[in-house]
Amino acid sequence: MERKSPSSLPLATIFLVVLMVGSPCQSRPIVASDVWEALPTYIQLKSFISSESDDISCEQSYGFLPCTTTVLGNVFLILVYGYLMFRAAKLLCDGCEILLEILGPGLIGGLVLPVLSSLPDAIIILASGLSGSKETAQSQVSVGIGLVAGSTVMLLTLVWGSCLILGKCDLDSSLSKDPKDTKGFSLTGSGVSTDIWTSYAARIMAISIIPFLIVQLPAILHTASGDRIAILIALFVSIFLLVSYSIYQVFQPWIQNRRIAFAKHKHVIAGILKHLSVRAVGRLLTDDGVPNTTVIEKLFMMIDQNGDGRLSPAELRALVLGIRFDEIDMDIEDAVENVMKEFDTSQDSFVDMDEFVRGITKWLNEARRLSEGQQGASIHLHHFHEETRKEHHLLGGQGGHFGETVKNPVWNAFKAVMMLLLGTIVAAVIADPLVDTVSEFSKASSIPSFFVSFVILPIACTSEAVSALSFARRKKLTTASLTFSQIYCSVTMSNILSLSVFLGLVYFRDLTWDFAAEVLVILIVCIVMGAIASFRTTFPLWMSLLACALYPFSLLLIYILDYVFGWS
Questions:
Q1: Which of 46, 152, 319, 370 is the most buried (most CB within 10 A)?
Q2: Same domain as 116, residue 105
Q3: The whole model's pTM is what?
């Protein structure tokens, strides 16, 4: 699968031109220092031929990258470094998607790729806490917590709400009718439906906030003596959750396929019962709700075309072929095989009358149990049929086949590995100057570095947002499920992987944990959106307004708690 990305050459060229020419730039003394002092200083670029004694007003990353102490200069550098970080994140994301198409879910798709997708965040957090002395790390570590909080809040508010708006379809009986979108921006008449697996992803996301609760326990209990212990316990819990989530991701496709296969078999059962109830001479259930054995035996004789007293696989196949399975891609041979396995208790490859009666009786009793409160045999069967159809719909279908449609898999795998390698290198190189630039901008503008990293860095590091918005436009249940699942997965990885890195830095560098307001915002947003997404699969359009409103609420809450009530 070919992927093309715009070149970074034009931006890099502009970057070099601005650095080398014009009055906004300053180099180390090539001419007299008094001439340079008369010029305004926006960006400084240390010359490779300068002496060690030369004075410079800002510290340059790696000894040669540009730096500045002015607001405009830092804005420019943040845009450049942020763009390069975005390209690195995009390379990692695209490389992961290509490998996933080739290799499919499992160890690579479930463990390696989610970690690589979260790599830019982890690298920036490392850069914020490893640089310089302990005092420097303590001042810059707010960039790391700002990135963790900003990524989580942005994904669950602005991106989530935008995906709901772009992916909306008409709602009918609590389900979206994709890709039908005729009700405009009706707050209750249009919305998005997802499969049940997306709800499970939201529940896992809600569980991932446990380390945040643990690390805040000393503050909740008003004791400072347990800070280090709480940080260490939270670190171990976050690592445990990361390993557990990775294992779940590895085996989840297998679990999902088993659930879907079972749902399809239940739909076959419901279809056969509904079909037999129409053909039966009499009612399959008596007035007391008991299976009518006499009617079932007559049905057996109707299906037994050759009258030999037993049903062959061919006769069962003829029965299944006569059933219309609504909107479900049914494998007839697989359905016949499953029915034969369930009915043929003697394992002679035929179903006699006693086996048929026992099998149909078992199905009818199951349908009656699932339709408690419904009156009448036909209503029982109709309700059972509708419930099985809805269950299959919520499970989202059989899923895709991986590796079969990818042309030149060897070349594409090589290209994906190169993209991952290049993305990792760029992210590792750019992370430290990006963190330094954010800190310098904070000093120059008197805006706390947390707010800069909260708003700007998630945009640079979260390339998944672009693919999520693109997927949402397709207005289908499968793509909507993938879109929202990706959002919940990204938040989960931020909550456990990025937090693990952050907690490790705080603990091993003996830094102070003083981020109560930031943690509270993460908890509020994750709990609210997790509660909404965990127990429902259809989201009316009005929920997008609620989600988007949480973003400014989060910023305002942090400002009030930190700068009005003095939490930090």
A1: 152
A2: yes
A3: 0.69
Distance, in Å, from the CA atom of 148 to the CA atom of 518, rounded to the nearest integer, reads 9
Side-chain half-sphere exposure of 428, counting CA atoms within 13 A: 7
In a domain, residue 12? The reply is no
**DSSP letter (8 states) at residue 108:** I
Residues 88 and 167 placed together within one structural domain of the fold:
yes
Report which of 450, 447, 432, 425 is spatially closest to residue 128, judged by C-alpha positions: 432
Domain boundary (395, 424, 453) is at: 395
Cα separations in angstroms, 68 against 26, 40, 132: 10, 11, 18
What 3-state class would DSSP assign to 409?
helix
111 and 240 housed in the same domain:
yes
- Same domain, yes or no: 162 and 296: no
* Sites in the chain below the pLDDT cut of 70: 1-57, 100-101, 104-114, 178, 254-267, 279-282, 287-289, 322-331, 368-407, 462-468, 470-471, 568
475: helix, strand or coil: coil
37, 19 Cβ separation under 8 angstroms: no
Alpha carbon 472 to chain centroid, angstroms: 13
Tens of pLDDT, residue by residue over 122-162, are 888 888 887 778 888 888 888 888 888 998 999 999 999 99
Comparing C-alpha atoms, which of 340, 314, 320 is closest to residue 268? Answer: 320
Q: Which residue range(s) make up the domain with 343? A: 261-395
| pLDDT tens figures, 6-58 | 434 334 433 333 333 333 333 334 343 444 444 455 565 554 434 444 445 67
User: 3-state DSSP call for residue 118?
Assistant: coil
> Minimal CA–CA distance to 75: which of 103, 97, 42?
42
77: tokens are 């550098």
> Is the residue at 56 inside a domain?
no
CATH of the domain at 354: 1.10.238.10
Residue 9 counted as domain residue: no
